[in-house]
Design brief:
Length: about 475
């Protein structure tokens, strides 16, 4: 008959085995990196996986990172983990990295810096040893604390999901052209922190203690030590209630994500460093789907969603009602721009459509009537009795009051200080502002021919004529100008 000790240890191990199999967390025969800090949770995880490794045919590799934040204590933790791995006959990778320096470089919190450095380290170890997963010692208590932290920070539905048994975590790798992820598995999510400590006691382990876990300077510590005891005082089953909320949020979020994926696939046009969302399709989606479309497009361009807030998402959604050319600057150098028929997420290295032929720098005269040739275009000017093209009927053909436009016309490139009075406006406007507001891509602006008289701009070709030369009821002769692509 088994002793009480064996039965308790075996019960926990059996529960972890069930969690691994039911959640398909680890593939039999695979290599697994086990992240071990030296504390009770990770020591429990390591020894449980060792005992299950034959049954699951797992190859284990221990990994430990010294964050270089606690001096000699950190180095002692690293030595302890290395010795533990050696006693178990397991290969082990121990490294030290300067988290404080990374915090200064990234201008983020210490907790965030530690997380980014840690997951990058684990990803690198997994790649070196050919592991498809990294196992961490997150427990049921960690899941509860994470959920409560997300509530405090105002997380959306996705944040309410808390921790999953398996998830892909983005890896911040400066200089890498391709975004990376590491697959994290959490076999102990059904086990409490009290149970991992008891397991270690029962099998004779002495885990390391991290004094920083008691520091009130970390929000997670204050949640664990101050807030959670109060919540449990109000509801002894608070942990169960919060985890149920997380499970319900997970189901709803998965459904909305699937709807967003289908919508994204039908309205998104992706190109290097740019995603365009069809305006009509975006505007027709619900606010919940719109928010997911924005985040999906942003992640596609930026590589991750770091620092993207709900307010950022709302600012992009407001572009639907804005004029073309309106921009919203988000994080990571990403700019969202309202196009005439789309919302565009532009990466920091985005280059607008390939630059076409530039309009002539020096004015080229267009005979009236007659014809002129400029790079990329053949320009014809005709005096007509009718019919003629009014603005909007053909973007490259326009009609003017011949007397108001005059008989001396020139084609040139835009120049600093250019102004004109766009059709329908009573006041002049800077040409630069017009091009921005209309959404003409920067790389194309020097290619837009400007038709001028000696007095002022007559036509921003392909976009708008000047209000002062429009055809009106009292117009006599009509001048029709056409820009025909040169063969």
């Amino acid at each position: 008959m088994k002793t009480g000790r064996d039965l308790t240890a075996a019960t926990l191990e059996c529960g972890v085995l069930t969690a691994i199999r039911d959640g398909t967390l680890l593939r039999p025969g695979s290599t697994v990196v086990v992240a071990v800090s030296g504390g009770a949770d990770s020591l429990c995880l390591l020894h449980v996986l060792v005992r299950l490794s034959d049954r699951l045919r797992l190859r284990l590799h221990v990994a430990h990172l010294d964050h270089m934040l606690r001096g000699a204590a950190s180095r002692d933790d690293a030595a302890f983990v290395a010795a533990t791995a050696q006693s178990l006959g397991l290969p082990c990778t121990v490294e030290a990295r300067d988290v404080a320096a990374w915090k200064r470089e990234r201008k983020c919190s210490l907790e965030e810096a530690a997380r980014e450095v840690r997951y990058r380290f684990l990803h690198e170890v997994a790649c070196r040893v050919g592991a498809e997963s990294v196992a961490t010692g997150h427990t049921r208590d960690d899941a509860v604390e994470t959920l409560l932290l997300h509530v405090i920070r105002g997380s959306g539905l996705r944040g309410l999901r808390g921790l999953d048994g398996a998830s892909s975590v983005p890896v911040v790798s400066p200089g890498s052209a391709e975004p990376s992820t590491v697959r994290i598995v959490r076999p102990l999510l059904g086990v409490s922190r009290e149970e991992t400590a008891e397991y270690c006691r029962l099998i004779g382990l002495e885990p390391r203690k991290d004094a920083s876990n008691e520091s009130p300077s970390h929000l997670r510590n204050r949640v664990r030590l101050e807030l959670l005891p109060q919540c449990r005082g109000l509801n002894p089953k608070f942990d169960d209630a919060l985890l149920r909320l997380g499970q319900a949020a997970k189901y709803d979020d998965e459904h909305l994500e699937e709807e967003a994926r289908r919508t994204y696939d039908s309205i998104a046009d992706e190109s290097p460093d740019c995603v365009q969302l069809n305006l009509k399709g975006f505007a027709g989606a619900s606010p919940a789907i719109q928010a997911r479309l924005v985040r999906r497009a942003h992640e596609q361009v930026a590589g991750d969603l770091r620092d993207v807030s709900a307010e950022h998402v709302r600012a992009v959604r407001r572009l639907v009602a804005a004029r073309p050319g309106k921009r919203v600057h988000l994080v990571a150098g990403i700019v969202w721009r309202r196009e005439p028929s789309s919302l565009a997420a532009l990466g920091p290295h985005y280059v607008d459509d390939v630059r076409g032929p530039e309009a002539p720098l020096q004015p080229v005269e267009v005979p009236v009537p007659g014809e002129a040739v400029i790079p990329g275009w053949r320009v014809t000017a005709s005096l007509v009795d009718g019919p003629y093209f009014l603005p909007g009927e053909n973007a490259l053909t326009a009609a003017f009051d011949a007397d108001l436009a005059g008989r001396r016309l020139f084609v040139r490139r835009r120049q600093p200080g250019d102004r004109f009075r766009p059709l329908g406006m009573a006041q002049e406007k800077k040409l630069q502002d017009f091009m921005v507001d209309t959404g003409i891509p920067l790389a194309q602006r020097d290619g837009v021919p400007i038709l001028c008289s000696p007095e002022h701009i007559v036509w921003v070709v392909g976009w708008r004529i000047d209000d002062r030369v429009k055809v009106a009821d009292g117009t006599g002769a009509v001048l029709q100008v056409a820009f025909l692509p040169a063969p």
